[in-house]
Design goal:
With 196 residues, the protein is of the alpha/beta class. Helices cover 33% and strands 29% of the residues. The chain has one domain: 3-Layer(aba) Sandwich (Rossmann fold), CATH 3.40.50.2020. Strands 5-4-3-6-7-8 form a 6-stranded mixed sheet, sandwiched between helices. The longest helix is centred in the N-terminal third of the chain and has 16 residues. Bound molecules: zinc ion. The site of zinc ion has 7 residues, from helix 6.
Length: 196
């Protein structure tokens, strides 16, 4: 990590916190697990100026390579792909899942030999992105790398260059083993309003 990368990580964390997209406390996740942190990148990306700023920082990481197309998986990757593509001056495409399979639809095409940058908002297991990488390879495109705003995976799940603005390890516990429950606090479901 360079000094610039560390600065970018700090700035990204600040941005997420400022807009309430990164919460600290005691949460019950959709999976049923409990956690002390919760990140909802969509809340940051809902603000166009914030989306532009973080995506520009991500695009900067790839300014030393030739990029022909920026591609992201729907839904999380669409706004990031759009803003990174704007910063790099390339088209923005997105993939979407149809009957379980990741596809390029709407007349989108990856010409053979295109240099493709794949972006996502948050990488947790990297499953969706891996499907996008396969799709690009099948189309005869070349992967420049993968970029995300937040990396939740402990290490890169990809076999190509991977850049994330903020590495954010979120610990999750089974409710029976949750230290916060053991301390007597009750978890909240993120996104639900207090009292509702
Ligand atoms: Zn708990």
């Amino acid at each position: 990590m360079t000094t610039t990368d560390i600065k970018a990580a700090g700035e990204t964390e600040e941005r997420l916190k400022r807009v309430g997209a990164l919460l600290e406390g005691h949460f019950q996740l959709t999976s049923g697990l409990h956690s002390n942190r919760y990140v909802q990148c969509a809340k940051l990306l809902s603000l166009p100026q914030e989306a532009e700023a973080v995506s520009r920082a991500l695009a900067d990481r790839f300014s030393n390579v030739k990029v022909d197309i920026v591609l992201g998986p729907a839904l999380g990757g669409v706004i990031v792909a759009h803003e990174v593509a704007r910063a790099l001056g390339t088209p923005c495409l997105f993939t979407e899942r149809k009957e379980g399979e990741m596809q390029l639809r709407r007349g989108f095409e990856i010409p053979k030999g295109s240099q493709v940058l794949v972006v996502e908002d948050v990488v947790t297991t990297g499953g969706s992105v891996k499907e996008v990488l396969q799709l690009v390879r099948d189309a005869g495109g070349e992967i420049v790398g993968v970029g995300s705003i937040v990396q939740r995976a402990a290490s890169s799940p990809f076999d190509v260059r991977y850049e994330a603005l903020l590495a954010l390890q979120v610990t999750a516990w089974d409710p029976s083993e949750c230290p916060l429950c053991a301390e007597g606090s009750a978890p909240v479901k993120p996104g639900s309003r207090p009292g509702s």
